[in-house]
């Protein structure tokens, strides 16, 4: 359905034309000063502006996106797990060339998204590879294009494969989720975080915000709960939402010290 409307600012694809974008009107995003603008995949592809970008980001992790970045600009991560390839988060741009490149890497068995800002064209991805999309039910209201491929899950964790676990931290959005891969970093463990855990310039720490563009802090009880939930898990690396936004070492302690620092500041 390449003619369906897409918000230029955030990349959300909607099931039908509309005048507003709820994602952008929410205080965790924004409507640009130039106003609400719309496009669609047919128009984007025909422009010739975007091309596929596939680059290694770490052991067994392949970045999937476009040049230049599209909409918000996040890149997806292809996880080459023992249980099969899995796609984490979603690049808004998709065309036949990008699909072919992902197929050459072995395709995918499923998709999970960290939070609504990255739902974008996920249904297009699901249809291209005939796979399910796992979204937390606490964020169901933000789904722009309902589809049978979307599988809502509830609770604190979901094992989407024997070696891949979704963890609902509730940071940024109620359904804000990270992916824990014990086999990542050559067996030392990795967390794929989108911007639920924001990889920041000081790689000894992560950020946990309610709104990143509008600088609204996350609630202390949510930060505390997120740190407590991740404490039992072993992971060396954290992979954020952007190209090369990676904490390579001491990721577990980066989360714990970040929460401790934040809570000390707001107490």
From TrEMBL:
Domain Metallo-beta-lactamase, which positions?
73-242
Which SMART domains does this UniProt record tie to the protein?
Answer: Lactamase_B
InterPro entries, A to Z: Metallo-B-lactamas (IPR001279), RibonucZ/Hydroxyglut_hydro (IPR036866)
Task: Tell me the protein's name.
Answer: Metallo-beta-lactamase domain-containing protein
């Amino acid at each position: 359905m390449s003619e369906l409307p897409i918000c230029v600012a955030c990349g959300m694809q909607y099931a039908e034309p509309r005048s507003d974008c709820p994602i952008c009107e929410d205080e965790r995003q924004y409507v640009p000063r130039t106003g609400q603008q719309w496009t669609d995949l047919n128009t984007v592809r025909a422009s010739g502006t975007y091309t596929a970008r596939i680059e290694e980001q770490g052991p067994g992790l392949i970045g999937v996106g476009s040049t230049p970045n599209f909409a918000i600009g996040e890149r997806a991560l292809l996880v080459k797990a023992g249980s099969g390839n899995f796609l984490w988060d979603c690049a808004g741009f998709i065309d036949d060339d990008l699909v072919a490149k992902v197929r050459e890497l072995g395709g995918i068995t499923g998709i999970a998204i960290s939070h609504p800002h990255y739902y974008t064209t996920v249904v297009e991805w699901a249809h291209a590879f005939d796979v399910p999309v796992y979204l937390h039910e606490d964020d169901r209201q933000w789904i722009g294009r309902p589809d049978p491929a979307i599988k809502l899950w509830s609770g604190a964790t979901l094992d989407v494969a024997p070696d891949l676990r979704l963890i609902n931290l509730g940071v940024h959005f109620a359904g804000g989720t990270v992916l824990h891969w014990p086999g990542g970093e050559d067996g030392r463990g990795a967390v794929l975080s989108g911007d639920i855990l924001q990889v920041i310039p000081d790689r000894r720490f992560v950020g946990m915000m309610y709104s990143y563009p509008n600088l609204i802090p996350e609630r202390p009880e949510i930060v505390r709960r997120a740190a407590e939930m991740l404490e039992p898990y072993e992971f060396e690396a954290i992979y954020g939402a952007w190209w090369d936004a990676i904490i390579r070492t001491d990721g577990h302690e980066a989360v714990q010290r970040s929460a401790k620092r934040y809570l000390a500041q707001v107490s």
